[in-house]
Amino acid sequence: MKTIDNYNFANKKALIRVDFNVPLNEKFEITDATRINAAIPTIKKIISEGGSVILMSHLGRPKQGPEEKFSLKHLIPYLSEKLNTKVKFADNCVDNSAKEKAKSLLPGEVLLLENLRFQKEETKGDEAFAKKLSELGDVYVNDAFGSAHRAHSSTAIIAKFFPKEKFFGYIMENELKNINKVIKKNEKPFTAILGGAKVSGKIEIIKNLLDKVDNMIIGGGMMFTFIKALGGEIGSSMIEEDLLNVALETIEKAKELGVNLLIPTDAVIADVFSNDAQILTSDSNNIPEGWMGLDIADESIKDFSIIIENSKTLLWNGPMGVFEMSNFENGTKAIAEAVAEATKKGAFSLIGGGDSVAAINKYGLANKVSYVSTGGGAMLEFIEGKELPGIKAIEE
Ligand code: AMP
Hints:
Helix content is 34%, strand content 17%. It is an alpha/beta fold.
């Protein structure tokens, strides 16, 4: 892998694409600095070697040019404190002043560029814009895994202007190593646990994983499309009628491949979509009219936990139920605990995708699993088996 550890940055200007897309409150204070903190080791490695650093990122989704609430200047105080050095700022990422500031950087100094998306060329993957950015540095480092699925100027197109001097930062390296460990170098038995609302959002993942796993657990709202496809009664549970065939094909394919496809046998059902609903437990394929399944119930939890705790590799994406409501969080919580238990017994566990990351954090188990991916959409596309432009651009 082309990582920064294979390069000496002394007297080099490293142009680093980071993901500083952090949430800000009305006073423009950072409310969650996780993404900035994650990028610090890459920046520190370079400045401590006597390189200088030019940081570029997007923040939010500005529509037409600069907007105060999306300015990266709000990050300067925090970043300066974290890096223990004064961070310089260029209020336009490609004008002459940015060029001058980049040019005059001394070893160990850090320059932050204004939001790349203030220029409309960025998201279009404009080559001339990428070239202008490239002229600011001698070396290109991509450490923005969360944007690796975008073919934008700063995440992918720019790499062609650094035919040799282009590398993955530490976040990228970690994400790629950990996800590849699950997808390509897994130890068996390998179990994928898939949940969340809809089959439509997960179908590419299901397809790509089916010939790699030993067990595939289907939970969340999407379980009901499978249950209905098998002829079950699902009441008013979430359903995607147009995917009944896809569900049946998946069941057939799993049989063909010898994959153990686990569909919940029981469910926690409610008469309305509310935490104050009347609640019952039901067989998952015999839900009365007017009731909806909002979580998996005890029997499924028990069956799934045994499979999970006997696995050597685990990939978890998507909650088992409406875990945001306390009456429907048991399934998700129990599965999170089973994943932690399996990890304790030596399994490698990867958690990825927005809601499963939120769940593992909610139950305080983030440091009891092997790796929590920060990648969001990029991680999902990676496990769908797609080639990510930001990764390809460095490897090419
Ligand atoms: P996704 O973004 O597709 O991973 O879906 C996550 C969402 O699915 C969460 O907000 C859950 O509340 C929701 N969800 C999980 N199980 C169910 C269910 N049985 N019925 C409706 N929504 C569900």
